[in-house]
Amino acid sequence: MSELKNLIKESVIVDSIYDIESEMMNIKEEIVLRMISEGVEDPGILKCIFMAGGPGSGKSFTAMDIFGIDKKLVSSFSSTGLKQVNSDRAFETLLKRNGIDPKDLARIEREDKELWDKITKDPGSMRTQAKDITRKQKSFYEAGRLGMIIDGTGHVYNKIQKNKKHAESLGYDTYMVFVNTSLEVALQRNKNRERVLPEELVTKSWKDVQNNLGKFQNLFGGNFRIVDNTVYKPVSKEVVKAAQKFMRKPVYNKIGQKWIENAKALKKAGYIKK
Would the pTM count as exceeding 0.85? Predict the structure, then answer.
């Protein structure tokens, strides 16, 4: 129980970088604190969903269909109680704060190497800051074992494997939704995105993700679903039902079961406000 109390204590420490995050997520401090105190009753508690798919695959639309994530809201709350973890949101916010149109990134990479490095590569770059914000946000959610959607491309298999192992070591049940599309469609959609990426990057990412498809299937086993999103359309009922079934199931991770047991005991003893 002492470990749990320490995690709860750590989770309410808000440093200066959370000023950006709180604005980005539209969360008032009192709501943040309530999330921790009520985490044990959260409908998505100890459920971790990994979204995978290259740029332009339509992961945001798919997450909205399956889990109730509204892609227009930066608050990242879903009707299933899941909190979205996505460094791209923080990155785009920082770009706009610095007067940079996300649609100009491809042009900047071609024409202004110095600015491109400041945005993406230099120590303290906006990309680095965005990742740091997101890392802190994720740690905060993990401290309360709140349900999460980890939104990424999945182009680096070892990263997903490591994050899955970490989540499960904390007690999470894990699941993956792989959003697939053709390269041609991905390139076309990239042109219409708010943050346009260089075509070479989209192509490389798409190929890497495709190469990882079979590995992900093996890694997640029965907790894996593919969504064909070459044409925008509602996610199939089969995929939605499978994901919702996973969400409704009681936590089966033994570590997670013990965490819930301890959290309820602490709440009953008055360490956590009801």
Answer: no
